[in-house]
Structures are given as C-alpha cells and as structure tokens.
Amino acid sequence: MRSREMNQLFATELIDPSSKTGKVKKEKEETQKRNATTRKVRPTSRIKRRLLGRQEESRFGLHAEIKEKEKQRNDQQSRYSRLEQKATFSKTRKLSIVQYLRKRSVDGLSTRRNASALRSIVCSSQAHFKRVWVRQSSSPIFYDRLIFFDNFKLCVGPRGPNCVPLPLYESPTKDRIESLVTFNSYYKQTTGPADPTNNVSGAAALTRSGWLIIWSLDRGEPLKRVYVSKRLKFRYATWERDNERLLLRSARGGSNDDVVVSLALLTIAPLKLVAVAPIRRSVYGRDVVNATINNGLLVVYRHSGNVDFYDFDSFYESHTIVLADIDETLSPADRVNVDYDYEVAMVGVEPLGFPYTIDSTARPTLLRTLRSQHDHIAFGAVPWHYIANTDRRERHAFHLRALDSDDLVEVFYKDDFNAEDDCAFFHPDFGNGVLHVGSGVVTCHDVADDGRLTKRFQINIKEKTPSSSFRWSDVATTSSGRVVKRRSVATYEYSLATLIHSIEYEDELDLFVVTAGFYEGDRARGHVLLCDKDSGCVVKRVVLDDWNDAVDANHRVFLDRDTLVHLFRKGPGREYCSVYTLVWRSDKNKSSRRETSSSK
Questions:
Q1: Has residue 343 been placed in a domain?
Q2: What is this structure's pTM?
Q3: Measured between alpha carbons, how far is 305 from 373 in angstroms, rounded to an integer?
C-alpha cells in the first residue's frame, strides 16, 4: 500500500508542472533538447570547452564587455593608421624602417619610399662605411655604375659576394677605347626588325680606329658595332641629352684647317643617326676655337671670349642633304652630296662610315651671344639665369646674370685662401639655388623673383680661418689680360690644408657628397661629408683611410646607395681605387671580439 502511494506521488510530480520536482525535470529536458539541436557531440577538447565557456559568459551578461573591448581595439587601430598616414606626409615625423617595410608589403613597391628607407639606413648613427677593397692601376680609372680599369678593358662590379667588388668581364673589343658612356634603355620596340638597344642597360664606347661599339653592361655581350669614321678622328663621346641623344666630337683641327671640329649626333634607343655637321671657319668665322651641341643648341666658342648659341634642331631638319640612316645604302641623290666615292656606300659600314649629312655652307639662326673667359657656362633658376666669367680682368670671378636682360645679379669671387679654381653652379634639383664651392666652404643662395640673392645654408668644412690682409683684388694683370698671382708661402700652405676636391650629388638619396682634405695636427686626413640638399646639414662624416695631400692627387668620391667609391692618384702612373661598403656597428664589435679572442 505504501509503495503504491509512493508511485502515484512521483507520477503526479512528473506530470504536474506546478510542483517543484516537475519544474526541475522540465528544465533538464529543455536543456537536453537545446544541446541536441546545437551540437550532438559534447565538446571534450580544451579549445571547444573554451569556446563553450565564452558562449556561457555571454549568456551571463559579459557580451557587452566583449563588444566594448572590440570597439576599443578598433579605435586604437584606426588611431594607429591615422598616425601612420600623418607621419608619411609630415616633414617632422617619419616612419621607422619596420613601418616602411610593413607599408611596402601592403601597398607594393615605391621608389620614393624605398629611397627614403635607404637614406635613413645610410644616415643612421649605427652604420659606418668600411673599406673592403683597394686596387692600383697604371692607367686612369673610370667609374660610371661600374669600375673600369686598363683603359676600359676590365669591368669590375662594385658589389659582389661578401660586399667585395667582383671582376665581371673584359670589354668585347681589343682596340684602344677613347671615350665611354653608360645608358639605360627603356625603349620597347613593337614593329620592324629587332633593335639591339631594346630595353637594356648598356655601354657605348668610341675606339681610336673609328668604331662605335655598344655592349650589355651586365653581361658584356656585344650588341652593335657601327663604323663611324677613321678619317674624321672622333675622340669624345658625351650626352647631348641625358640617356637620350649621344654626341660624338672629333679632335680639334689645326689653326690652318678650315674644319675646326666635326660633330655627330645619334639617338641611342633606337640607334639612329640624326646629323653629322662640320664647323668651318669659312662659315662661322676665323676666330672659332671650339664647338659643341647641348640640348638642341649649337654652342660656338670664339677666341675673343664670345660664345654664340644657335638653334640646331630646326636647322638640321631643314638643311639635311643625306637622308640615309645606319645600315642603309646611299641613294643616287645622296651620293651626289657625298664627297667620297666608294663601291659599297652604306652608312655606318666600312669604309664609308658617317658622311656629312648637313649642308656645310649654311649657318643656323643665331639666338644669343654671351661672354665667358672659360668654357664653363651654366643655365638655371626661374626665371632663367646663367653663370659665366664675363670680365676679362677678373678671371677668378663667376658672374651670375639674368638671361633676358643680362643684368648682373651677383659676383662669386675666388676664395682668399684657395690654391685651386673655385666652382659655381646651379642646384641640381632644378630650383632657384646657386652653389658656390670655395676653400673649406660650400654656400647655397636662392635667386628670388626680383633678382635678389638670399642665403639658404653654408657648409663649413673647417671653422678656423687665419687672418691675412691678402685679397684677390690686389692681383695684378698684364696688358694681355694674364693674371699675375702673388701670394705668400703660408697662404698657399693653408689653402692646401683646407681644400674641397669634389662635390657630387646622389639623386636617389638627395644628398651632397663633399670630399675635402685638411690637416689634423701634422697628418693630412680626407673626409667625406654627406649633406642634406635642402638644409646643408651634415648627416654623416666618413674618414677615408688613404689620403694623398699632393696638389695633383685629384680625389673623386662617388656614392651609389650603400657603396662609396674613392678614386685618387699618388703620382704619375699610380692610380688607386678604394671601395667602402656600409656595415653596422655590431658587426664591427663582433669582429673586434673575435680578433681579441683569437689573440688570446
């Protein structure tokens, strides 16, 4: 009886939802059904239990806190992105190297951003330049992206394994090379025969036997051989327009010759002949001493000091008498205008080479005549100005004049304690800056719109300057204009003690590379100063290991990204080349520790 009552009581509790025991049973059934719908298998791993715990915490009211944390994290990320964008475009705050690399991985490659990152590495206080290679040569050494020895016979790359320069190849010609230029060709040919200068980095060399040889700068493979002319004696190859048009100049004729100089103009990519013109005294005057072509202007120098500028581009387009291009046969009309009769008359092929393609009896339109006692004439600034030595009695002065009115703006005098010639030129950033290089001082001025000069910055190699009453205004001149230089031995010795040998501009890093030498006690030391192009601040100073304080040492230093190339001479037939590479201070400390440990 008692057991039957107990069974009826449990049955009523399970059925009756109002009872306490029935509610518990019902909640258990609901949770079991809910768990069965969401996941059939109960999580046993730690990760699943953690996820389940997060879900249970959100049920108990922690979901709002999680959302608040996510909001704070998003606000922090947005703030970081705003700061990063502000630092990118700000002049005072810059991104670190890690931030640059992170941004480059997201946004892709950027030449300007990579150059800025490289500049911060080069100018860092933890990095220094270490000499890794030295080589001597009996012939002059030439540097243009590669180091050329033995009259351009051997080509050495400045970057090799373990940062040591590596000999790459020998030049593909056995003839003596008179002049050489390097170029980057971005020309992409789509129609016609394949051009050898299509999208390559190459070198164009002019030989004594009259050949123009073009080869690949990376591999040394010959790309093109053009016979210029042995009769015209072309000796110099320069750029008429950088990396676009090549100018070949011959050796100057004698005083009794009618042809003073011959000029040949070519486009490098694609390789085509533009014009070949003689400069005759019978056409341009008996006092012509030299001539060249620069940026479409024919520049003729005269014995009187006048420099004539002619419009050459429009002249050769209207006065061309030979229309044949390289590797093309002369037409019967072209043969009439050529003074030489050959069976095989092909331009750029032996024995004809390059004939005169312009009417030599006509003269271009004269644009302007300026005066200069030196061959150095520079144009720049806005509006246009030029720098030249216009006064015959002051050969040591550089005059800055306005091109339109020829008004004198400023005279840059020779430094009082300089044994070498000064140099004045325009700032290489194509702005309104004018640089004046003296003995131990580099000064930059800005040309205003009204023609006034304002000093921007000054780089002092050595602050100390001796007092002396010597001035270049006291220099006497003869009746013919020759300058009689009179100075004491002490002045000459001090001028050699503080002397700037060269100043170059590294366009990728926006730095001036100033090479100077002065005495530290009784020892002469050479210093390379890396200066900012806008403010003139010295961001890094490099002390050269080898230095010759002789007058004819002719020190030249080139900066190519993280490599310094130092060219100098110690006497006749003793040319030297030193290569410095960028290393970190930690590497220097490690090497010193290894040396001390090995000595122990």
A1: yes
A2: 0.71
A3: 5
Predicted confidence band of residue 279 (pLDDT cuts 50, 70, 90): very high
Q: How far is CA 16 from CA 218, 519, 567, in A?
A: 95, 110, 105
498 pLDDT exceeds 80? Answer: no
Per-residue pLDDT band for 15 (boundaries 50, 70, 90) equals very low
Token pair 């306490």 in the structure block, residue: 20
CA 299 – CA 314 distance, rounded (Å): 15
Is position 594 within any domain? no
CA distance 424 to 436: 4
Residue 233 has pLDDT above 80, yes or no: yes
> Which residue carries 């001090």 as its tokens?
494
User: For residues 365 and 524, which has the higher predicted lDDT (pLDDT)?
Assistant: 365
Structural contact between residues 516 and 527, judged by C-beta atoms closer than 8 angstroms: yes
Structure tokens at 580: 């410095």
Q: What CA–CA distance (Å, rounded) separates 175 from 183? A: 21
Number of domains in the chain: 1
Return the residue matching tokens 């922090």: 76
Using a pLDDT cut of 70, give the percent of the chain over it: 67
Query: Which tokens is 313 given?
Result: 């581009």
In a domain, 115, yes or no: no
227 falls within a domain: yes
Instruction: For residue 405, report the phi and psi dihedrals to the nearest 5 degrees.
Output: -105, -10
472 secondary structure, DSSP code: G
Cα 480 from chain centre: 43
Question: CA-CA distance, 326 to 273, in Å (whole number)?
Answer: 6
* pLDDT tens readout for residues 21-45: 555 566 767 776 666 554 444 444 5
| Helix, strand or coil, per DSSP, at residue 12 | helix
For residue 526 the two structure tokens come to: 């050479």
Domain that holds residue 254: 171-371
What mean pLDDT is predicted for residues 95-116? 67
Sequence letter at residue 367: L
How crowded is residue 495: how many other Cβ atoms within 10 Å of its Cβ? 19
Q: Tokens 């730690």, residue?
A: 46
Considering only 341-345, 414-418, 471-475, which range has the smallest mean pLDDT? 471-475
Helices 20-38, 2-15: inter-axial angle, 10-degree rounding: 50
For residue 252, what is the DSSP state? P
